[in-house]
Design goal:
By secondary structure, this protein is α/β, with parallel strands linked by helices. The protein has helices spanning 15-27, 40-51, 94-109, 124-135, 148-162, 195-202, 208-219, 221-229, 234-248, 293-311; strands at 4-11, 32-36, 61-64, 73-78, 116-119, 142-144, 169-170, 173-174, 182-183, 189-190, 193-194, 253-262, 268-279, 282-286. It has a 6-stranded parallel sheet with strand order 3-2-1-4-5-6, sandwiched between helices.
Length: 315
């Protein structure tokens, strides 16, 4: 079956999946969008609700469907899974969500699907690794949303702190999308100016304490949102929309997506969120960016934690 490069599917129509569908509608990236959910009526309701806005949005067809509809999709986004509870870490979700992922992968791999699989369900790095191993697809075709959202949070907070447009801030959160993630302060810059140099020009020094405060706010952001409204979904929808845009438009853009490592950074048997070039074929190149000594040690710690979890999975 020939691939339809303007067709996508979303597996899971909870708040995250529905928000991503709405973002896709706003972007106009696809001409056809298929929604799948264990509760077929939920998928149908979301498709009907979204379709009501088509006269004011992009020209596309939005329908509920089943796994038979995904074979010719260019992109399948997996958001299905149980929600993160208040105070629960992403890693504590692993046992419950791995079972769900296994059932999804069985359905997908039984079809002649040749597109890109984008994992959004948490813990996203572990589930990206599991999806790649369970599917047997090349790692280029199985990626996760990684720390694209966390990196956006870093840029936004730095922009507010320095009173500059966050789109001019260039910095990454890498490692686990979770408690062991790390900010790469050594490579941070504002429109090419080293972060510390820019701070001097603005008369606003960022102390190590300031950086620790910003990092904690980024790391704990999801829990703070969950405490207040029960779930997070708008931010991740914007992040997934950005990843999809890079794929559909073949942008060759650099994003910190979750990727399965094959001795990059000397690490293997793990997926981590690492700056990578993203284009129409998914992962194009994992970038081994310069890291300070403390940053490299923190990345190794993050990797070991995830490797321990992965070792306990029956894949």
């Amino acid at each position: 079956m020939a691939m339809n490069y303007r067709k996508a599917a979303i597996v899971g129509c909870g708040s995250v999946g529905a928000s991503i569908a709405f973002r896709f509608l706003q972007q106009g990236l696809f001409s056809r969008l298929v929604l799948l959910d264990a509760n077929r009526e939920k998928a149908e309701g979301e498709a009907m609700d979204l379709s009501d806005g088509l006269p004011y949005g992009a020209t596309m067809e939005i329908t509920a469907g089943d796994y038979g509809d995904i074979a010719d999709c260019a992109l399948v986004v997996v958001t299905a899974g149980v929600n993160q509870r208040p105070g629960e870490t992403r890693l504590e979700l692993i046992e419950r969500n791995t079972i769900i992922l296994k059932s999804i992968m069985k359905e997908i791999t039984s079809r002649p699907f040749e597109g890109i699989l984008l994992i959004v369900s948490n813990p996203v790095d572990v589930l990206t690794y599991a999806a790649q191993r369970l599917s047997g697809y090349p790692r280029e075709r199985v990626i996760g949303s990684g720390t694209v959202l966390d990196t956006a949070r870093l840029k936004q907070l730095l922009g507010e702190e320095l009173r500059v447009d966050s789109r001019n801030v260039h910095a990454f959160i890498v490692g686990e999308h979770g408690d062991s993630e790390l900010a790469v302060w050594s490579g941070a810059n504002v429109s090419g100016l080293d972060l510390d140099d820019f701070c001097c020009l603005r008369g606003k020094a960022l102390s190590q304490g300031d950086k620790e405060r910003l990092y904690r706010e980024i790391r704990d952001s999801a829990n703070e949102i969950i405490k207040r409204k029960g779930a997070t979904y708008y931010g991740i929808a914007m992040a997934v929309g950005r990843i999809a845009e890079c794929i559909v438009k073949d942008e060759h853009a650099v994003l910190p997506i979750s990727v399965v490592l094959d001795q990059e950074y000397g690490l293997g048997n793990v997926a981590l969120s690492i700056p990578s070039i993203v284009g129409k074929n998914g992962l194009e190149k994992i970038l081994e960016i310069p890291l300070g000594q403390a940053e490299r040690s923190a990345l190794d710690v993050s990797a070991r934690q995830l490797q321990e979890v992965i070792a306990g999975l029956q894949l």
